[in-house]
């Protein structure tokens, strides 16, 4: 029977899975497949396509949260299915060194994700206050000058300055938070965010990370707002 795979752990991880039900219909129990020094956490799944339904996303995350409470697993993204237990053991055997190295790298840590956006009004006000050329162009346009070159020049100037300021803000946020982490990854931002940062934070250093973030959040003059999610399984640090 096909199996849905949630994570890989070291053999000594307790894998307290009692009471957990897995992804897919029928509330399948979650169990362990072992090979050598590694364990894979799995549940049986039928032939139907696994889709990201709310119930299944919650079940997937509940398994990983339980594992994270007792140690750091290597989480798999939602939807990974293997043909059977034998195929899982084969992958554990073939990739044993890779998995063991990765588990050593994340041991005792959790992932925190930081997203940052900047309030547009504060950003534009700052640009107009600091750039005489931008301010002058804006005043000419507001005064009724209909030269079509003016808004084009102002648009190019503002776009370049927005990019420069967001790049600087990203660098400052990374500089402030990275020392609290063992490693970090910068992902492509989405929506209104200009930064999407994942950090691998030691569990005994979480207070330092949160204090550093709180200190950043006190700076409201720049219009930069950050959002933190975590502690999370270290998705961003799985090879």
Automatic annotation (TrEMBL):
InterPro entries per record: GvpL/GvpF
Secretion signal span: none
Main location: other
Cell compartment(s), UniProt: Gas vesicle
Keyword line: Gas vesicle
PANTHER family for the chain: PROTEIN GVPL 2
Family named by the database record: Belongs to the gas vesicle GvpF/GvpL family.
Name of this protein: GvpL/GvpF family gas vesicle protein
